[in-house]
Each structure stands twice: as structure tokens, then as C-alpha cells.
Amino acid sequence: MYLTNNCVPKKADEFTGRGLELKQIRDFVDNYKGGAMLVHGQTGCGKTSFAHVLAKELELEILELNASDLRNKDALLSIAKNASLQMSLFASGKIILIDEIDGMSSKDRGAVSAITEVIKESKWPLILTANDLMNERVQDLKKKCRFVELPSPCSDDMYSILSNACSSNGICYEETALRNLARQSSGDVRASMIDLFVASFCGGLKSTSLLPDRLRAKHIEESLALVFNTTKANISLSAFDNTDKDLNDCLMWLEENIPKEYSGMEMRNAYDALSKADVYLGRIRRRQHWRFLVYANAMLTAGVSLSKSDLHRKQPDARYARNTRPLKYWIMNNRNAKKKAIAAKMSEKCHVSKRKALKYFMPYFKIQYAGKPQHIAKELMLEAEQEEWITE
Amino acid sequence: MDTLIWTEKYRPREFSDVKGQEDIVKTIQAMVEKQNLPHLLFSGPAGIGKTTLSLVIAKKLFGESWRQNFLELNASDDRGIDVVRNTIKDFAKTRAIGDYPFKIIYLDECDSLTKEAQQALRRTMENFVSGTRFILSCNYSSKIIDAIQSRCAVFRFKPLEKAHITEVIESIAREEKLQLNEGAKKALVEMADGDVRKLVNIMQSCAALGNSISESGVYNIASLAEPKEILEVLKRAAAGDFANARGKLLDVQLKYGLSGIDLIKQIQKEVWNLDAKDSEKLRMIERCAEIEFRMVEGSDEFVQLEALLASFISR
Fold it and tell me: Sheet of A146-149: strands edge to edge?
């Protein structure tokens, strides 16, 4: 017996707690009118399984392309597109499942545009799955699909799924141990099944201490909450170890969200810790002296945590926000490129450096230009897009 | 040469037109007439005639061919040792075009030359002295290494007096047929703050909006170049409103395209205009110093500014 295969749901009602979302997918397949459905959700929540169950219940053939297949433009077009246009050989219809679209590799060149093409012309329902809707590869496809988020089962649902699996496979268990397993599964059904499978060799699930430690990349929000809500260094120090962000990113998250948790003297201390961490990060960047990373980490975790003397939260329901400053800088740089080009021309004409031209001439330039636009444009030999900047 | 950019149009072309630096001009004019010039070091604040006098020297010495014999570099764009080693040397190596004893290299904003580059320059100045003269210009001569200062005749330009600025205002007004009353004149003098380049730029901007220049018009235009919002940022921080203060500070940075160092310079100036005890202000200045130091060592300037603002909040 291999439990995961044995326990893959065979009927739709085995997907405890996810009925609403699944009905949407079923309706989409049942009344297919073109387009694609993008199903996203955490690992092990049942995206792929459900597509297979659905195909079985509706007696459809299923064509699955996943990350193990080469999925560049040619491959997708020859396999998926042909399938999307041809009739099914064995069944009354088919489902085309393009799995794990956020797992497209750099070798899968042109995949997104190929999928888009398939979506446009497909005669059969197309289901795409993804873990992370924020993944950049998914962005373009998002606009072309309907999407539904498949939630991971909560721990109560997970418990009933697991206990069903135990009774149907004759695994004995202790209730508290199984509840613990359900709780620490973070909604990953597949992983819990494997843990159960392992436990079955040890005479059943008697205690959770036997279970493997499943470390998942923590959401940055969790790490922030950890740093903000402790005054103990040993808890705080490892807060960022399990996120998928590097320390520079963590610094940006802290920078944005400190005011939500701190005020007054505490905020001052927290930002001072950040400021010191930034100095260490600067030294790492300039001298490639990576030893400073431990110090930067210490300031960002313990430094921020210990800025607080007591643990009350400033706004208990505060939600942490992403830092928008880099985006704003990017926009500014694009906007300033034209201004800088004009300043460079000014600098030649007026015997000053570009830096001085920006500082001493550009603030006045739009107004001066308004006086005699054509003449000044001609004198500086401005290009069309530079003139555009002036009249903006 | 016809130009519509007033700073060029009204740039003095004769020694006698250079205002406010009579002694310096007299000495230099005498040397130019004898075609005998040492290396020169001009120091003084912005917009008082350092570049202008250098251009007059070049035009008087070389006449029509001044462009071929005059290399103009500014240290902030052409910074670093490579420029000294390549561009400057290449120009210095060849003889002057026409029957002139030497060429001139004008090096602007020398105070931002790195020390290394200055070191590289000292030998170049000596080795090529037979065919090349340097005119170095800077705001603070203290930033120039002694070895270079000792090879130059040093001229310290004086800030222009009110009377000189008024003369410039009146002659441009006459030429451009502008009407301005005493109030507007006073405002121009005040806003120019001794800087003729700034003065002429403000005048041209005012004139673009109409021939009659008013006092309030001058203030409006002048405020374009000076982020007034910094004081507002500081006031908000002092009142404890951190979120607003940092939002505003980021806006200022984006609007004017300022670097973190630019911003902290402004903050440091504006701290003294806050409504607080002097001892408190001094404490803030100390924080500025610490943060500016960290900024130089650090990687994200804005994080440092936030730390500064946060430290202004609690007293």
C-alpha cells in the first residue's frame, strides 16, 4: 500500500470543506464556453487531484502537462493546442490540465504566449494550476483567465480527512496525536498522508514526537509578527531564517511596518537598530565582507525586538504592508531620465556640470521654455520626447 | 553669438564687465596682456564669476581659436583619476593651436575631485607647465590638497555686494524691456543671495510669464528651486506624526529628485528654523551628524533618514 496513491480522493465529496470552490470549477467544465480556469492554492490543497476526480465523474479524458514536461512554445503548441482542437478518442470530451504554471522554467521559453494562444482557441475546458498567484510568470495569464482560490482544509477538516484515511486503511491512532498532526499540517493534505503512512510502520500514530519536522518557508508577515511581539533575543534572532526573503528585503518590510507596532521612544530605538543594520549591509555591499551579515541580522531581529519594553500591540489588528518605496523610485527614475537628458544639454551650453545644471537650471526650465518654446528647443536641439517632458 | 539662455546671453565678455572682483580682474588682466600666466586657483561661492572670468581669459588670450585651446572639465561629471590620466594628459601633451605660448585647462568644481585624482594632477601640472596652464575652480580651497595649492596663484572671489546685483538687475531689465518696481528688485536681490546665475535664471523665468515683474512673482518662482516642504516635514516629526512626516519626506525626494545627502543637508539647515529650545536643536544637529555619517557607510539612504525623523519625535 502506498498511502498517498491509495488516499488520493476518488470522489468529489472527499474534498472536505472546499465544496464552494469546487462547484465553480465543475460549473466551468460543465458549461464550457471558452477560456480557462486558473486554480491556485497552497501545495497539497487538492488542485490537481480535483481536476482528475472531475474528469472521472464527468467521464472525460484528461490531458495533463506538468512541470516535468518540457513546456516551451513548440511543445505546448504541438501537444496542448492539437489536443485542444481535436475530438477525444475514448470519451465524450476532455479536460486539458496545465499543471504548476508557476513552475515554468527559463527553458520553457514562449510558454505564456503559447498558453494564451491555446486559451483563445480551445474547444475543451482548460484548467491551469498554480501555487503562487503573485509569481511573475503568472501575471500575464491572470488577465486571460477566470481564477478561483482553492483553500487549504482547516485543521478540523484535516482531522476528519485523516481519520477517514486511518479507518479505511486500518491505521490505529491516538486522537490527540492525530489532532496535532492535523494542526501542524498547515493544510497540506498530501504531506499529512505521507506522515501517516510513515507512522503506520511504527504501529500507528501514537505521538506526534515521531513525526518529521516539516519546515515551510514562513510568510514574511509571520516573521514580522515574531520580531514585533517578543522582547526575548533568542526567540527573535532566528525570525528571518525561514523566510524566502533576504535580509535587505526583510529590512524593507520592517521599515514599512515599524510605525504600526511602535511609537515614541520605542519607535526611535527600532529605527536606530534598522539604521545600524543598514550600515552593516552597506559595508557588506562595498567590501564583500559577508561576516557583517550576522550583525545586520542581529540588529534587524533582536535590535528591533528589544526596542520595546512591554508587549502591548499598538494596533492589534494591524496588517503588515509591502514597502512601495522601490516602486516609487523606479517610477521617478523613468520620469527623470528626460529631465537629465535636457540637463546634459544645458550643461554643455552653460559651462556647468550636469549636477549643477540639474540643481540651478532645471527648476526654472519649464517656465523659461514657456517664454520662447521653439527657440529654446532649437538652441538646445531638444528631441521630441524631451519637449514632451516640458509640456507635461 | 545669439543665445536665448540668459545666463549665457548676459555672461560678461570683457574684463571690465566682470562685477565685484575688481582687484582680481586687474591683476589677471595685466598678466593676460603680457601673455604670461601661472596656474590659477579660483575659490568662492557659486555664481560670482569664476567660470566667467576663466572664459574671458580664454577669449582674450586666444581670440577666435579659444575653443581649440581651452579644455573645460568639471570634476563632478568627469570625476576620478581616469580623467586626469587620460583626457587631461592628452590635451596637455599637444602644442597650442595658433601662435600662443600655452593652452588652458579649466577644471571646475575641483573640491569634488577625489584625493587620488588630485595627487595625479600635481605631477601633470608640473610636467606640462611649458605648454599648459591650469585654472582650477572650487567653492572651498581647503578641499584642495596643499601640493596643488602651492603650485597655483590663489584668488579668493568675494561674494557680490547688493550694489553689484542691483546693477545686473537693472541692465538686464533695460535690455529686455522689463518693468519692475523697488519691491521686485529687493525680492530679486534677496532671493539671488549673491549668486548671479540664480538671479538671472529667476529673472528669465519671471519674464517668461510677462514683462512686468512683481515682488510676489519673484518669490513664487524662487520657491520652485527650494524645497520649502522640509520645514513642514520637521514640524510634523516634532509633533509626533511620524507616518505623515516620512510620507512627506519621500514625496519631496521624489518631486525634486534629491539624494539622501541632499535631503539631510536641507534638514540640517532647517532644524535651526524650528520652534524649539536651542539645546533641543543642538541635539537634533548631533543626530544629523551621526546619521549623515551612517549614510556614507550604509546602503539605503532613506532608511537612515527615517531613523533621523524617528529620533526627532521623542524628547
Answer: A61-65, A94-98, A126-130, A36-40, A146-149
Domain B162-221 class, CATH top level: mainly alpha
Are the C-beta atoms of B203 and B170 separated by less than 8 Å?
A: no
Rounded mean pLDDT of A78-90? 75
Q: Are A368 and B310 a contacting pair at CB < 8 A?
A: no
Question: What is the reported pLDDT for B140?
Answer: 85
Query: To the nearest whole angstrom, how far is the Cα of B76 from the nearest Cα of chain A?
Result: 6
C-alpha cell at A38: 486558473
Average pLDDT, chain A: 82
* Interface membership of A363 toward B (CB under 8 Å): yes
Contact call for B254 and A328, based on CB within 8 A: yes
Contact call for B76 and A355, based on CB within 8 A: yes
DSSP for B212-243 reads EE-HHHHHHHHHHHS-THHHHHHHHHHTT-HH
Domain range summary for chain B, segments of one domain joined by +: 8-156, 162-221, 227-312
Rounded Cα distance between A182 and A253, Å, is: 31
Alpha carbon of residue A127 to chain centroid: 20
Q: Do B5 and A349 touch (CB under 8 A)?
A: yes
Q: pLDDT band at residue B46, thresholds of 50, 70 and 90? A: confident
Say if the Cβ atoms of B294 and A276 lie within 8 Å.
yes
Q: Rounded to 10 degrees, what is the CA torsion of A56, A61, A67, A68?
A: 100
For residue A234, the Cα-to-chain-centroid distance in whole angstroms is: 29
Instruction: List C-alpha distances in Å: B308 to A312, A385, B107, B239, B302.
Output: 25, 39, 36, 14, 10
Query: Superfamily assignment of B8-156 in CATH?
Result: P-loop containing nucleotide triphosphate hydrolases (3.40.50.300)
Answer whether A352 sits within 8 Å of B5, measured CB to CB.
no
Tens digits of per-residue pLDDT, A263-288?
Answer: 888 999 999 999 999 999 999 988 88
Whether residue A56 lies within 8 A of chain B, CB to CB, comes out as: no
pLDDT at A1 over 50: no
Q: Contacts of residue B284 in chain A, CB cutoff 8 Å? A: none
The residue whose grid cell reads 537628458 is A341
Is some CB atom of chain B closer than 8 A to the CB atom of A369? yes
Strand pairing of B212-213 and B103-108? unpaired
Distance from C-alpha of A73 to C-alpha of A77, rounded to nearest angstrom: 6
Select from 1.10.3210.10, 3.40.50.1370, 1.20.272.10, 3.20.20.70 the CATH code of B227-312.
Answer: 1.20.272.10
User: How far is B217 from B222, CA to CA, in rounded Å?
Assistant: 9
Q: What is the mean pLDDT of residues A145-163?
A: 86
* Residue A352, CA atoms < 13 Å, CB-side half-sphere: 22
Give the rounded percent of residues in chain B with a pLDDT score beyond 70: 97
- Cell 500514530, located at residue: A205
Residue B3 is nearest to which of A251, A336, A379, comparing CB atoms?
A379
Q: Which residues is A332 bridged to in the sheet?
A: none
How far CA A388 is from CA of A362, A367, B24, B257, in Å, comes to 15, 14, 44, 19
Contact call for residues A102 and A131 (beta carbons, < 8 A): yes
Helix (H) or strand (E) holding B134: strand B132-138
> CB neighbours (10 Å) of residue A19?
12
Cβ atoms of A39 and A129 closer than 8 Å: yes
- Report the percentage of chain A scoring pLDDT > 90: 12
Among candidates A268, A276, A285 on the partner chain, residue whose Cβ is nearest the Cβ of B313 = A268
Is B22 a residue whose pLDDT tops 70?
A: yes
Contact check, Cβ <8 Å, B291/A347: no
Cβ neighbours of A332 in B, within 8 Å: 254, 257
